[in-house]
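Troubleshooting log. The previous structure file for this entry was overwritten by mistake, so regenerating from the original sequence record. Sequence copied from the archived sheet and checked twice against the printout by T.R.
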Amino acid sequence: MTEPPSLAAASTAPTAFFDKTYDEAIGLLEQARGYLSVLEPIDRRQLAAPEQLRLCVETMRMTARLTQIMAWLLAERAIFAGELSREAAFEGQTGLAALPVCMDRGEDDWQGLPNRLVSLLDRSHRLYVRVARLDELARRRLQ
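Regenerated output below.
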């Protein structure tokens, strides 16, 4: 006879998923910081003025995405720890999917940008969309 999974075992799956997403976000944040502080100034000097402007716009878009992702993940961590209610976390906050500057992929603007930046832009967008879906699911549960 098979025993049903324990409550502790059942709660580890969401925690493991959350931890993986959190670790991915932290890793991407560290890589972005490294790029922005060391490599971005080098790359920017090698570009013509229009591409420099696009580089600045896209790095700001990436920074906005990563900031929103981390804020959401930290709020979820506080909710999971019982330090914050979901209602309080979402009160007055716009859903992540409603932020066009972060949802816009901007691929047309990636032409001529350094490949290492394009990789960060793509990965930050994919992670943002995934977290925005989680945010949407969490918001639906409140209704």
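The chain is about 75% helix and 0% strand. Archived copy saved in two places this time.
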